[in-house]
Task: structure prediction
Amino acid sequence: MRIGVVTFPGTLDDRDAKRAVRLAGAEPVSLWHADTSLQNVDAVVLPGGFSFGDYLRCGAIAAQAPIMKTIIDAANGGLPVLGICNGFQVLVEAHLLPGGLTRNEHQHFICRDQKLIVENVDTAWTNQFSIGQEITIPLKNGEGGYIADEETLKRLEGDGLIAFRYSDVNPNGSVNNIAGLRNERGNVVGLMPHPEHAVEPGFGPDTPLAMRSGVDGLQFFKSVINQVVNA
Amino acid sequence: MAKKVSLVDTTKAAKKSPDKVQPWKELGLKQEEYDRIKVILNRRPTSAELAMYSVMWSEHCSYKSSKIYLRQFGEKVTDEMKKNLMVGMGENAGVVDIGEGWAVTFKVESHNHPSYIEPFQGAATGVGGIVRDILTMGARPIAVMDQLRFGAPGHPDTARVVNGVVSGISFYGNCLGLPNIGGETVFNKVYQGNPLVNALSVGALRHNDLKLAKADHPGDLVILFGARTGADGIGGVSVLASEAFDADGPSRRPAVQVGDPFAEKVLIECCLELYAAGVVAGIQDLGGAGLSCATSELASNGRAGMRVQLKNVLLRDASLTPEEILMSESQERMMAIVPKKHLKAFTEIVNRHEVEFSVLGKVIRKPRLYINWGKEEIVNVPPRSVAHDGPVYERPVAYPKWIDALNKSSVKKLGLVRAQNASELASQLVQVVSSPNQASKSWITDQYDHYVGGNTALAMPDDSGMVRVSEDSGLGVAIATDANGKYCQLDPYAGAKLALAESYRNVAASGAVPMAVTNCLNFGSPENPEVMWQFKEATAGLADGCLELGIPVTGGNVSFYNQTGDTAIYPTPVVGVLGVIDDVARRIPSGWQDEGNNIYLLGITRDELDGSAWAEVIHDHLGGKPPVVDLAKEKELAELMHGANLQGLIASAHDLSDGGLAQAVVESCLRFNVGARIWLIELIERDRIDLTAALFSESQGRMLISVGREDDVKFVGLCEARGIPVLRIGVTDSVKELVIQDVATWSLEELRNSHSATIPELFG
Result:
């Protein structure tokens, strides 16, 4: 089981994503933005960061990178793709997921341990969760406010395409508390919070049991391994 | 189109026109300094040379007023202290061997003045600059921290500076992908017109990856890479630019640099790949003094020379004069010394990262720096005279007479009223922990990414920041910084030792073993003999303190001229201590985690309220003498912590400093939302103090420890065996309350609201 992790110029969480893949039990494969080959990976992670310095719009330039052409085709063919934070912004800019991400309504970058409700488990990246489960993973972004037009929102809600909602606190003013989305097929998932920062005891969010012991993010990567292995 | 008139001042012209009037004064040089340049060159300098000397001999670059005092950091050391020091003072940053083939490099630097003029870019480029220093040593930067001082919280200008600085650090640091793991924020009216923005970075490297900034092999290429050179950060040198008459030229140069963290992130990855490929023989970042500094330092460090063609510099603004190119402080640039045979490999790597570069020249055997502008020679100097043999001053020193009166106006002498009853004490406790300096800084730190990298083991609000260095073994480092300006105003010698003591104690509280020291010495004008006395005292205190603790100073930074008009800031020597921990899994949290644990106070509490948060908040008073510092006791305490932690006896540890026991107890409750019952009666009897002193005294050498019941006997036995005063003062509780017997009971929710509302209300 090989999972590709894409590095764009300005990507920051690629090493973290590779570590998460490894801890979940798969082999991480580095993918470079200027290449076009996916090196036969079974799934792809678009990690967080500030690809191309967030110039133009977050994720807009990365969405045009050579590797993305291949990823878009593969995603349309069913390849599991997870976009985290800036990766989510790239997925939206690449039209693999609808809507847009805007400046947090309070205008500040925010880093916090964020509670989420899992809304949908019929995806490549969420099948190890249960519906309505509350999980805690770090959130850190400056432009995480999700927006979409009325019609799109209606479709997202009606078709069960919302993967995660913010619970407790809406940290950035996202409409309907939307934290993450899935596509119709369930192979593409994007979210603002960072599952790859909650995979290793000692380095994740605090839990009632112990400091920095939260590992809820690991299930994202175990989900895709489960999906690919049982496919 | 106006016709361009070339007025490039060449070495040839300089010989021919020895009496030409030059703007040395406007560039900040003294008459005797200008005369000395003429002696060195045996002629007048060209305008390019004048620009180079003026900036390299500035206080900021040459340390001319501080040098004679900084020497003692290298002198007051034992062989034992030097044992783990791979690179000491004088390089871009000190390097410490932490074992298992790993080394770390860390340094703190000031960016105070730019951050007042333009807080956002000033703070942002402060982060960028210190990170490049770390990168230059061959290390991967792994974390940053910031030490901030702002004016009075209620002053109308403070919010501008706070918001700008915090956004700038957040913007730049977050975009670089470096976790921000801690720091300090202090408000005081003395910093109103002169805020302090210090930035610290730490990096990790394998022993054999160490790089030094030197060019010592003739024939090697001198390559400038990264961002293009523009007109930013030129400052005073624009008086030279005014000599060129050009109607198309830019008229005013911005003195504050503008940062692009994306360019720096790409540069970091590019440099690390260049290092790994082994194609770089020497490396230097471009910070203060830009190309003047990089060329002269590389050549001087290598005891060699250099021939440079300035027309080869890639420009953002084609109208720049040669002097401006030499002075530009454009960010995100590096200079590499590359052996010719590696040029192809070098080119491939930088191209892959889409980083621009140009070959400026080559290293030569003769220790002379030649810089040409096209065919004309505009610089011909001994590089050492520019980079290392600048002027050294022994400035006049005068004991400030006002300090006697200040020391006399103590809390006791003035009879400052203490709480008369329980309800007054309770209200004072809430006032202290919710005052701007003691309140939670989470509104600030929540704007910083502390997760990126996946190696953060401790971050704010814990006493130290801690990052894992080796994923295989868990080997890691902890860093804490501190400087109590009030203590230093009362007694700079003791104040510097107190800053060292607190950082050291913070590192020990995290479970790490303190190992090395860095500093950023923020002071007023060195031309004021009283400020110079403060500087002399503080450096002596720090050097003596390091010797007592047995940990070396590895490097640092001096920032003078922090004052508004004649009024200097409080002396603010920021001291950073780095500690090592074999496995970060053993780190100690700063708050209680479980109910039913015993709470112990280690150390002795004296009636020490002078210079305290209590005196400031309740009485708006600063006077008397700072708390007594006993570094031998601090060392014993640190050794106890290490021993007890190895046995797994400690559930949490919080150092006691400003705000005293009250502050530590409240923070320990709020960290994980675990309540406690505290009693002070035995403490009051044993240490013969009153309740006010018990809660708010800032006596040193104390720590608040929670211990699981099963480890109780062992822990107390260990303390007693080592002669550390230990007293059980409470238990942690399942009820979400803080009960201080004979004082009050608070719900944790109300304490949290008081503690965390202050800063967002002021600045949010």
Notes: Residues 1-5, 241-253 of chain B have pLDDT under 50 and may be disordered. The domain at 219-364 of chain B is CATH 3.90.650.10 (Phosphoribosyl-aminoimidazole Synthetase; Chain A, domain 2). Residues 436 and 758 of chain B are 6 Å apart (CA to CA). The two ends of chain B are 51 Å apart (CA to CA).
